[in-house]
Sequence to fold (212 residues):
Amino acid sequence: MLKDAPNSDQMRRKPQQARSTERVNHILNVADEVFAEMGFEAATTIEIAARAKTSVGSLYRFFPDKVAILKALAARYLEQLQEAIAKLHTPEAIHLPLAVYVDRASDTFNQFFIEHPGFRSVFVHSHGASSEVLAMQALVDCQIADQLAAFYALRVATLKPEECELIALVTVAMVSKLHVLSLSQDEAFRERVMAEIKKLLLVYLQLYLPDS
Fold:
């Protein structure tokens, strides 16, 4: 959960009833599609409202502008990504061959990007739109690094806490930068970069987390 994200939700009003929550989620789902198709700069609240089959006034009840929609989408993306990473680190994963673990971790990221087409627009093409989006991403990177460090410590008991922390931070920084690269061109390029990420991760982690 993004409990500590600074101003991560700038909605005009938060939904109090199930119907309102459903409407907000629908607006965000449509915004995801619009941002993915048109890009953040070209997208408009009018277009989002039209595709969501709601009035602009109804949209403004929850989101004062498209930057607020961007922030809400960013928070949702990052929370879902964090949850996906957490599901990787089961008791079973501690004993998996490293290559299998790396495959699963990389495939989790890959599937996330496929299921969330607007992610590219939010985190690759619209960084200038909100410093808070960048702050949220940095926060979740740190949280994911904490999850990885805890997992590494369980996998290799001889690693010191500071070693686990450093390995995790390097891993997150490397993967984060390369995922941005992977989203900078077409689908074929993304798949090629994802394959390279797997290779790099395996080579790097084998230095510290070799199979028993």
